[in-house]
Amino acid sequence: MTPESIAGLAAEIVACRRCPRLVKWREEAASNPPARFARDRYWARPLPGFGDIGACIMVVGLAPAAHGGNRTGRLFTGDRSGDFLFASLYRTGFANQGTSVALDDGLSLLGIYIAAVVRCAPPDNKPTPDERTACLPYLVGELRFLPDLRVVVALGAVAWDGALRAMRDLGYAASPRPIFGHLAEARVGRLMLLGSYHPSQQNTFTGRLTQPMLDAVMVRARELANLD
C-alpha cells in the first residue's frame, strides 16, 4: 500500500527489513557499542527524514552512522559529520541550535528537511548498488510529500546520484546528466540540485571541506530557494 502522508512513509521506513546485510550490521553495531556509548540504548532501525515539512530545501546525505543516527534515531545526530552540518545550519539560519546529540535535545529545523539515500547504517559507510536501489523509493516519497521544495543539497557524489535518480522517478530529468562537484548546480525539472562535499571526517579533517565552504553551500541554497 502506498503511504498517503509523510508520517505514513516514516512508519514504513522504520519497519523496513529489505536488505539482510544492513539489518544484520545495524543490529550488530547496536549490540557491540564502543565504550563511550555502552550505556546507550540504540535505535538500530532504519531512519526516516526529519525537519520542516514546509521546507523549501532538502539536504540529502549518504546513510546513518553506525554509532550516530543508528544509535540516536535521527539522521546526522550524535556523530562528527552531524556536528559539522548542524553548526553550519545554525550559522546560516536553518536551525535553532548548532548541535544535535539526541532526539529530545530541542533541535528545530527552519525551512529545511534532512534525508538520506540509504536509511540503515552500512558497513564501512558503503552501501551496495542494490541497497541504494532498495532505499530509493523512500527518498522519492519524501520529495513527493514536500510540495514547497525548490532546492536539493546533495552531500557527496552518492547523494547527488541518488537525488538525480529520485527526481527521475518523479518525472524530472536533466540532459546531459549533471556532474557532481562542490557548489555544482543543475536545474532538474522544477528543482535545483546543489552539490557539496560530504561533511565526513575524511573531508573535514583534511581541509577538503571547511566550515566556510559548507556555509557557502547553505547560503547559496537559500538564494536559490528565494528565501532572502
Describe the model.
With 228 residues, the chain is α/β, with parallel strands linked by helices. The chain has one domain: 3-Layer(aba) Sandwich (Uracil-DNA Glycosylase, subunit E), CATH 3.40.470.10. It has helices at residues 6-14, 20-31, 69-72, 80-91, 129-144, 157-169, 201-204, 211-224; strands spanning 50-51, 57-61, 112-116, 151-155, 185-188, 191-196. Strand 5 (185-188) and strand 6 (191-196) form a beta hairpin. Helix 4 (80-91) packs across helix 8 and helix 5 crosses helix 6 (157-169). The model has no long low-confidence stretch (mean pLDDT 96).
Profile the largest sheet: 6 strands, mixed
At CATH level 3, the topology is Uracil-DNA Glycosylase, subunit E
Alpha plus pi helix count? 8
Give the name of the CATH architecture: 3-Layer(aba) Sandwich
Mean pLDDT equals: 96
Structural class: alpha/beta
CATH superfamily: Uracil-DNA glycosylase-like domain
Order of helices and strands: HHEEHHEHEHEEHH
What is the CA–CA distance across the termini? 40 Å
Helix content: 25-40%
- Net shape: globular
Strand order of the largest sheet: 1-3-2-4-6-5
Radius of gyration: 16 Å
Q: Which residue ranges are poorly predicted, with pLDDT under 50 across at least 5 consecutive positions? A: none
Number of domains: 1
In CATH, what is the class?
Alpha Beta
What fraction strand? 5-15%
DSSP E strands, number:
6
